[in-house]
Amino acid sequence: MSGIDKIIQQIEASTAAACDSIVAAAQKKADAVIASAEKEAEQIIADGKEKTALHVADIKKRGDSAAELEEKRVMLSAKQRIISEMLQKGLGEARNLPGEAYFALIEKMVAKYSQPEDGVILFGKKDLSRLPNGFIGRLSQAARGGVALSDETAPIEAGFILRYGGIEQNCSFDAIFSGEAENLCDKAGRLLF
What we know:
This protein is an alpha+beta fold and 193 residues long. The protein has 6 helices and 4 strands, in the order H-H-E-H-H-E-E-E-H-H. It has helices at residues 3-95, 99-113, 125-129, 135-142, 173-179, 181-192, and strands at 119-123, 147-153, 159-164, 167-172. It has a 4-stranded mixed beta sheet. A hairpin with a 2-residue loop joins strand 3 and strand 4. It is rod-shaped. 11% of the residues are buried.
């Protein structure tokens, strides 16, 4: 082998070693980049799973809250319906009390709602036709002031209207139940629920 061949061979060996070193260094850098990318990808996946779990938990919480709110709304509606039905039933029963009990209730109502002055009492057509004998006298004694029976009939089904001068006080069962509905609903609600 001549000197040139030896030099070429040395250059080739040196170049091969340099190439091997460059390739090894590049492979090492590539492995480091791949490892870093894999680690970053794993973190992105873990963060995504965590965000997804939080999002799912939030959606479930909102769904549970909406379901609870709807349940409360349905329950409140049912309670209000039951109370309304009870009040209507009570009103119907009060309207249909037997004669003596009905007029005893009217007497108590006159004592409660009358003013301390003389007034006039008006009844509906049905009640006016069935007033017991001496009832107006009993009402006049029960009232805080006197009451006289009006010749007019009131446009009511049950109860009465008290008139003091130009002022009328509607004591029909419908008006009383309507005016007391909120208090009656509260009392009925406490008893039922």
